[in-house]
Amino acid sequence: MARGRSADYDLNRETIVRTATRLFAQQGYPGTSMSDLARACGISKPLLYHYVSDKYQLLREITEGHVTRLEMLVGEVQAQKLAPAPRLRELIRRFVHEYAQARHDHGVLTQDVKFLETRDRNRVLRKERAVVSAFAATIAEARPDLATAALDKPLTMLLFGMINWMFTWLRPDGTLGHDDMAPIVADLFLGGLGAVQPPVTLSVEAPN
Residue 21's CB: how many other CB atoms inside 10 A? Predict the structure, then answer.
C-alpha cells in the first residue's frame, strides 16, 4: 500500500519551497545544493526527497509561480475597469507591494531563469511578456501619441527598471518602505521630478 501524505505535508513542502527561494536568491541556483537546502530546513536529505524530486523542480516552481502571480495581479487590476492613468498607478502599486512580499522570488526570477530548460524558460518568458504587454497597453491608452511613436514598450521597460531592481537597494528596515515608494515611482513616471510628493509619514525637522 502506498504511503499516504501526512496532515502537514503541504505546510512542510511550502516551508521547503520558501527556504529554497531564499537560498537561491542569496547563493544563486548553481551555488545551492540539496544538502544546503536540507541543512537549512533542519531535515535529512532522504526526507527532503519525500517532498521534492530535485533542485530543478524547485527552480521551475519558484520562477513560474512568481510570474504567474504577477499575471494574476494584472488581471485583478484590469477587472477594476479604471481609466488608463489610475490603472497604471494601481499596477505600479500592486507590483511594488508584491515585490516587497516576494523579494527572494523576484531575485530568483531575475538571476536564475537562464538555468531553466528551453521549454520551461520559454513558458516563463511568455508570461513575462504578457505582463509587459499589459503595462505597455496601459501606457498607450494614457498617451496614444507615444504608442504612435513606438515608445510604449521602451517606456514600459524604463518603468520596470525602476520597479524591478528596488529590492536590491531598498532596505526592509529603512525609513522608506515599498508602500511609500510606489506612489513616488508613479509620480516620477507620470509627471517627472516636479510631480514627486514626499510620503506623509516622513517628517522634516525645522532648522534650529
Answer: 25
